[in-house]
Amino acid sequence: MSAHDDELNPLQAAEARFDLAAEALDLDAGIAKILRTPSREVTVYIPVELDDGRIEVFTGYRVQHSIARGPAKGGIRYAPDVTLDEVRALASWMTWKCAVVNIPYGGGKGGVICDPAILSQRELERITRRYTAEMMDVIGPELDVPAPDMGTNQQTMAWIMDTYSMHKRHTVTAVVTGKPLDLGGSRGRTEATGRGCLFVTLEALKKFGIEREQARVVVQGFGNVGGQAARLMAQAGMKVVSVIEWDGAVYNAGGLDIEKLMAHRVETGSIVDFPGGENIDKEEALYLECDVLVPAAKENVITSGNAHRIRARILTEGANGPTTAPADPVLKEKGVFVIPDILANAGGVTVSYFEWVQDRQGYFWNEQLVNDRLEEMMVASFRDVVSYAGKHGVDNRTAAYMLAIDRVAFTIKLRGLYA
Ligand code: GLU
């Protein structure tokens, strides 16, 4: 199979980026072998009685890519098209993401093949609790700490926390992050990924001397990442000219009122036909001329087939893996300033880290403190990556991978191999 045939397999994207950075780093071949392979993969089959009495067996995964720098960390995804390769790629991205922002975690990811859109809350609860029970021995505050991802949310984390705690016979809040505030969640966690996107984008605007009031932003995805990024960017004075969702896109050259767009979506179930903007083609919206494009929906949005049509100055990757590996050189050629996913969307896991710290201390911070510390870490990481890119003459994505791989490799060398 040629690289192109495989372009949409996220594992291929992850491996291609890893290999490029490992080569640029002149990484020891043995260490490269370790880091190319996950440390543990668990598959479980989850029998669940549906509301109509039928029994269905769902497949669930948890992949721990690395535990060298600390517990595995990363979300759990519920989607009908989850694959083991996708979870492997996402797990390795978590390792690099945590290393880029320098938090003491490895990387992991979970997934359950199911369609949350057609399952009831009770069915989802049963799936989640049985998944957790099956994973009892591999998750834990010191082992592997799940969090929300696509298709999962605070409620899912509450069920995991409760199930884990029931088995342990005492409350263990730090087993998951992204919990509701009243169950040991952190202030600012819900907005954290979007807020992190804002902080790195503001740094990039400064670098190019673009006034934030002049910055035209296009956001793809209006879920937890895209919705919050759009809201916070608009609040910061930027003009969010278009929002793209799976069922359409809206446009307003003067900037959309994001709060009103959110209310419209709650009311009608969709962003289309928003009175404060016009409906435009969702495909064309991605190619609008803009200062900032934030793909915050899903993987494989910018590919070798359409990268040449992107007309953004800055690409802030809110989603994991929105750009395929063969699209990278096309964006580079066009001079698009890419803030790669493992940096741009690291705000979520950074505040997950704050949540875990707060849970373990039993001492909770106010929102300002959370946001200030998040800003400090995102800005420092942005500067680290950009200066590393300048120093080594590589693009930002390769720089972020190099920085991250170097940190993890250093830890592995120091620890040595246990035989
Ligand atoms: N699922 C999020 C991510 O991809 C958050 C992970 C976490 O907080 O552990 O970064």
Separation, N- and C-terminal Cα atoms: 36 Å
What would you call the shape? globular
Low-pLDDT residue spans: none
Radius of gyration (Å): 21 Å
Content of β-strand:
15-25%
Which secondary-structure class do the elements indicate? alpha/beta
- Give the CATH class of the largest domain: Alpha Beta
Average predicted local confidence, pLDDT: 97
Full CATH superfamily name of the largest domain: NAD(P)-binding Rossmann-like Domain
Q: What strand order characterises the main sheet? A: 9-8-7-6-10-11-12
Discrete helix count: 14
From the structure above, extract its key features.
419 residues, alpha/beta, Rossmann fold, 2 domains, seven-stranded mixed β-sheet, 12 strands, globular, binds glutamic acid
